Hints:
alpha/beta, Rossmann fold, 7-stranded mixed beta sheet, 7 helices, 11 strands
Amino acid sequence: GGPRRLLLVSNSTLHGGGYLGHCQQHIKSFLGEKVKRVLFVPYALHDRDAYARTAREKFESLGYGLDSIHESCDPVEAVRKSEAIFIGGGNTFRLLKALYDNSLIQEIRKRVLEDGIPYMGSSAGTNVATVSINTTNDMPIVYPPSLQALGLVPFNINPHYLDPDAKSTHMGETREERIRQYHEEPNTPPVLGLREGAMLLVEGDKATLQGVTGARLFLRGKKPTEHEPGTDFSFLLIDSNLQNL
């Protein structure tokens, strides 16, 4: 196996574009020519057949075959044989519950962290790549056995991160306030707020912010910081007590 390789995308569709249109060049350079087929995990949406059709159409247009795990009679075996894994967006709670129900947490971890196969996530698929789904925006429509996720990186991500709108009359909590409430709990890891159009590329011990919109980084007890595309986030991959940064 090689080092872990992850492409963690904030969102599947950017305003004005088609499915994965905004990141298709990133996908091609990430998967490269060695990967021929991608294993798709459509568990975050209810209509898995329709979701698999959408994903298959996109990946075939980029030159890759796509197998959907929900069509396999043995999901664990499908993961063991996969060349690359793509977990799509939808409801994060539904997705994580299905990963537990199908005994896939450890299998996916092993394939990505030990065998070095590429892992791509978008939205909910990015959420489950992190320590936990505590910082998802989704409603808990089902009850997974744990909020602990795949742990492919030692921090959390908030996909679709939204900046407060100064002109808005909406008096509800901002995303920033919600993340701050999460950090009021002890021993909570950093949270990377990925705006729509942003993605994080992880190659071994190197993490780089890509895309067009940038990100905000939240560390427990610190003021959030703003980061442009191209930022080196490799320090987030060091697990040893990031709270002291």
